[in-house]
Amino acid sequence: MAVQWPIVLFKLLAGGGAGLLGFAGLAALLSHEASRPWLARVNFAAAITSLVLVAAGGACVLLQVAKPAQIMAVVRNISSGSPISLEFLAFAVTLAAGVIFLLASRVGGGETAGEAGGGSAVGVAAGETGVAGAAAAGEAGEVGGGMAVKIAAVLAIAAALFMGFMTGYSHMAMPGTTAWHTPAIPVAFLASALLLGGFLYLLLLGLIRGRAAVGGDAAAAAAAARTPSRDIALVKIIAISLAALAALTIIAAVVYGLFAPLGDFAIAFWLLVPVIGGAGSLVAAILDWRRPASSWAMLGLVAALIGACVLRVTLWLANTGISPLLRG
Amino acid sequence: MAKRTLVIDLDRCSGCDSCVVACKFENGIGLGNYYNHVKPINPAGKHPDINMYWLPIQCQQCENSPCVAACPTGASYRDPDNNVVLIDKETCTGCKTCLAACPYSDPTGAVRPSVRWFNEELGVMEKCTLCNHLTATSDGVENTEDTTDAAHAVPPCVHNCSCGARSFGDLDDPASGASKVLAAAEAAGRGIHTIEAEGVTPACKYILSAEIADWRGLGE
Ligand code: SF4
Ligand code: SF4
Ligand code: SF4
Q1: What residue spans of B45-160 are helical by DSSP H?
Q2: Backbone phi, then psi, for A121, in 5-degree steps?
Q3: What is the complex's ipTM, to 2 decimals?
Q4: Which of A12, A42, A78, A256 has the fewest CB atoms within 10 Å, counting from its CB?
């Protein structure tokens, strides 16, 4: 069976991007007041990255359809409730949640507003402008923005769950396609998409917090230095969530593997999905939980990516149905 | 709700492919593609008691039509007047979702023949239309004096079947061509079968008498 690569890429990019947004939302909800300025920068970057990933996933779908100009027909037909319509709805909701989160982070997070003021340009002058802007906008933001960020964060988490689940549900919901007819698919797709997003979030967090600490941004560095234990606690909560998601990925992948007609693909599936993708991510998440470091997040991301990719490819490699019997 | 379909008598089918040729001619289908095809179901049993049959396959007009339910654009639809499962090629984006949804089709389009197949040239999905452009209002009891009589037209694969194995009509109308053939087969105690697949209830029926061959569906 020929693998439908544009669809695999859509599910990886949109699912992973949504997962990233979900973890940004989680971090925003759990964040301590003192760490909010630099966390807002992380979340700003996470929201931008998420939007880029989800949009890139959407662009991949255009490679799948033969008549991209006709794509508006999907929008017109959205109320049909077809599994793909629902997946499209999840895609649109995720993009909207990403934009809302981005805007809310700018209002509610002083640093991000500062970043907007100073731009991302390097250099002392630009940096100072940024910090000044941050201070002003930060104070105003805390008053009206705190609630906005929280609402946007809840929306972001809901969108991540909806998107991740729908990337698998759209396959499960096809009643005539026996090999896809298991709830293990949406569960495995959701868990593995969130894993991708979570590890990506930890990497972004390390990158931006690390940069702040080495002096790129004085206010952020100061804020980070004031609350190291809370930051570590946040990373630990994310890491432990990732460990739970990795465990869920393993269980769902095993159930799916036992259900699907894997055939010649069995060894590759078992090795790459539950072992590398699931157990590999689990080990990386536990290591990151015990001793937070970006290298563990990177290790987890690579393992999760391998598992997530092979899991999605399996949809086509282990789905012959009765179609081979149709040949004359 | 009308249940329009083909009913095919496998006791009569000789595997001559006349229906395939008639269908391709009527619907302008190019080399390598088919709305229908005939599969030989290989001999089974022990010499001299061997049996086989020919199985013509096309869209089974599933009662729950998962292809329609899966289509994100509404291009796969049921004719609001006669309930036939059709594809609106103007609306179809060529996303191939329906290929995965139809259990009688290859989900990737790599296997041909397939009940649904992707027309690369037009970028749209294709399948048997029950020749709705000719038969939309027909009862399937052919007027042999005037084969263009819309009230009694049959699809070209039915008209041109050299062994009289095919019939067409609404199974919810006892007076239709297909219903009459089915009722006669039932009265004679002949086997009536469907190509079973999980998740669908195909409307298309196959008649096969036990003394001709054992029903083995699509075979191996
Ligand atoms: S056989 Fe396939 S194309 Fe025809 S109605 Fe059933 S699911 Fe649709
Ligand atoms: S290929 Fe066409 S008919 Fe099939 S699901 Fe996509 S839009 Fe609908
Ligand atoms: S009913 Fe028409 S489209 Fe269908 S197999 Fe017969 S000739 Fe072809």
Answers
A1: 66-70, 97-101, 132-135, 156-159
A2: -65, 140
A3: 0.77
A4: A78
Q: Which residue in chain B is spatially nearest to A64 when comparing CA positions? A: B95
d(CA A17, CA A98): 10
- Domain residue ranges in chain B: 4-208
pLDDT in tens, B104-121: 988 777 778 889 999 989
Token digits of residue A141:
């933001």
Residue A214, chain B, CB below 8 Å: the answer is: no
Summarize pLDDT for B137-186 with one digit per residue, the tens. 999 999 999 988 999 999 999 999 999 999 999 999 999 999 999 999 99
**pTM, entire model:** 0.83
> How close does chain A come to B143, measured CA to CA in Å?
32
With CB atoms and an 8 Å threshold, state whether B72 touches A177: no
B163 vs B16: CA distance, rounded Å? 9
Query: How distant, in Å, are the alpha carbons of B32, B58, B107 from that of B118?
Result: 12, 15, 10
B7: nearest Cα among B201, B171, B186: B171
CB B61 within 8 A of CB B130: yes
> Which option is the CATH number for B4-208: 3.40.50.170, 3.30.70.20, 3.40.30.10, 3.40.50.300?
3.30.70.20
Of B13, B18, B25, B27, the one to substitute when testing ligand 3's pocket (max ligand atoms within 8 A of C-beta) is: B27
SS3 assignment, position B110: coil
Q: What domains are there in chain A, each with its CATH number?
A: 5-322 (1.20.1630.10)
With b meaning 16 or more CB within 10 Å and e meaning fewer, what string describes B107-141?
Answer: bbbebebbbbbbbeeebbbbbbbbbbebbbebbbb
> Cβ–Cβ of A323/B218 closer than 8 Å?
no
- Report the nearest atom of ligand 3 relative to the CA of B129: 3
Cα separation of A16 and B17, whole Å?
50
* Cβ-proximal residues to B120 (8 Å cutoff; 6+ apart), any chain: A66
Measured in Å, residue A65 CA sits from the centre of ligand 2 at 9
